[in-house]
Amino acid sequence: MGAEAPPARSWTRAQRALHWWDAGFVLAAFAIAWVMVGVPLAELLLKFVLFQVHKTLGILAFLVALARLGLRAARGRPAEDTALPPWQVRAAVGAHAALYVLLLATPVLGYLTASLAPLRIPTLFFGVIPLPALTGPDKAWFAIVFALHRVCAIALVLLAAGHAAAAIRHHLLGRTVLVRMWRG
Ligand code: HEM
Ligand code: HEM
What we know:
The chain is mostly helical.
């Protein structure tokens, strides 16, 4: 992703905070998704609340990802570690680009899933702000878009797990990559 701005010395405080909030929102939305779908219809209130929490966390992940991309375009990011072999730098750049794509695509597909759902459950941001459905209900499209939403969500979390493992490995090898994202 973009060489829009010159390399910065480190991540800014805002960039670091937003990275960890984004990771938290994604992981929480992912965990709640499986619970909310599994809750029986007999427990309607719990199911409703969990859907709203899931949707709110997912929208927050999307907004934070947009803010991160905005900051990155404005402030840049620290240079890649030049001690790394070029293939590892390319892998990191590719993984970060794919993470950003999935960070945007997964919530958009989720929003479309909610819009297409045959069972009209409103989308209430923070449980109170109603957000409009983008389409009417459509069973056939719902099945397709929901499957895509789920696949993107799983790909996002698997890629993030590999990304976290790589960050920890570099840290254990004595590199500063994790420290500079944690403390700057
Ligand atoms: C990064 C953000 C998100 C992640 C990781 C995520 C993850 C998931 C996963 C894994 C499922 C499937 C659960 C299952 O099949 O048991 C799911 C379902 C769902 N998601 Fe998301 N989601 C995100 C954002 C959103 C957003 C922003 C919305 C809507 C505003 C949304 C709406 C839905 C709906 C409506 C379903 C269930 C469809 C149904 O069973 O009727 N998601 N999500
Ligand atoms: C859902 C979880 C996560 C997502 C979506 C995510 C996403 C990202 C993205 C997109 C970047 C690139 C930032 C940029 O170039 O603008 C990044 C950087 C980074 N992430 Fe994550 N991340 C997640 C979790 C984690 C975890 C758990 C760790 C550590 C254990 C971690 C450590 C790092 C580090 C150290 C960097 C900086 C890499 C560098 O300086 O080149 N991330 N993350």
